[in-house]
Amino acid sequence: MATPLGFEPRITPPKGAVLPLHHGVSRFAILDRRFSSKAQSTKTRGQRLHRMKGTPNACSQILGNSLYSQFPLMKELNVEKLHVSIGDQEIVRGLSLRVPRGEVHALMGPNGSGKSTLAKVLAGHPDYRVTSGKVLMDGEDLLELEPDERARRGLFLAFQYPSEVPGVTIANFLRAAMQSRLPEGEELEATDYYAKLYEKMELLGMDRSFTSRAVNEGFSGGEKKRTEILQLAMLEPKYAVLDETDSGLDIDALKTVAHGVNSLRGPDLGILLITHYQRLLNYIIPDYVHVMVAGRMVRSGRKELALELEERGYDWAREGAVEPAFTR
Ligand code: ADP
Ligand code: MG
Questions:
Q1: Each residue of 40-69: pLDDT tens digit?
Q2: Cα four-point dihedral sign 261, 123, 293, 228
C-alpha cells in the first residue's frame, strides 16, 4: 500500500519502535541553536542579513520577511545549497530556497531544469542522491527522516504524474493515510471522516461517487490533479509541494483546483507551487516567484517576476544568473 507520499519507504519502522538516536540528538541540536541564536547580538544578525543579500533567493525574501532571516528557526522549509545526483549526473546544483509557513512560493523553470527532482528529494524518493547541502523543516533535518516520517511531520507532495493504485478506493486510501498520522491508539471516527471528506470534495467539485473508485485508476488528467488536492485538503500538512498541478487541466478544472488551493492558504501552511507556465499564477497569486534553470536558481522576485518571465522568456532569466546556467 502506498504511503501518503505515494511510494513505499525503504525501511518502515515497526509500530511502537523506539526512535533511533539521531532523532533525539537533532532535537537537542535544535534547542542548542535556538539558545545561541537568541544570544546573538543585533550586530551579528545585521551582518548575517547583509551577507544574505548577496544570494539571489535571499534578496527576494529579505524585504518582506526580514524576521525569518533573523531567526533561522522560524517555521519554514529551508533548502540550503542542495546538490542532487542521479547516477553520475548532477541535476540540482547548489540550490537554496526558503518557504516560510503562511506563504506561497512559485518555482518556475523550463522542462528538465530539475524542479520535479527537487520535489522528489524533499519527499525522500530513494532514487535521488543528495551529495551535499541541507533541507530543514521547522529546523529539523528532513534528509535524515524516512518518507513516511516526513509525511507524518507535515510534509505533503502532490505529484506531477500521480500513480494509480488499483484496488484501493479513495475513501480507504485517505482514511488509512489520516489514521497513520494519529497518535498510537487513537481512532479516526468514521462519521467525522466522511463529513470532512464530502465537504472537501464539494469544494473541489468532485462527485461523491469518486470515493468508491480506485485511486487514479482510469482518471482523466484533471481528475488526478483534483485527487491530489483532495489529499492535501484532508491531510492538512504544514508544507505542501505541488508539482505541476496545472498540467493537463482545462481552464474550468484549473479554476476549481486553484480555488481549492486558495481556500487552503493560511498562516499554518507553506506552499511550494511548481509550474512551467505563468497561467496558474493568475489564479493562485504567489507571494514570491523563483526561477530555476539547469539545477540552479537564476532569479527570485515578487509575483511580477512571473509576468516578466512570460513576456521575456527563460533565456532572459538565464542571463540574470549569478553564475551561467546552461541548459543541458
Ligand atoms: P523538471 O521537473 O524541471 O522538468 P526533472 O527534475 O523532471 O525536471 O528532470 C531534470 C533532469 O533530470 C532531466 O534531464 C531528467 O531527464 C533527469 N532525470 C530526472 N529523473 C531522472 C531519473 N529517474 N533517471 C534519470 N534521469 C532523470
Ligand atoms: Mg517536472
A1: 333 344 444 343 333 444 434 434 444 444
A2: negative
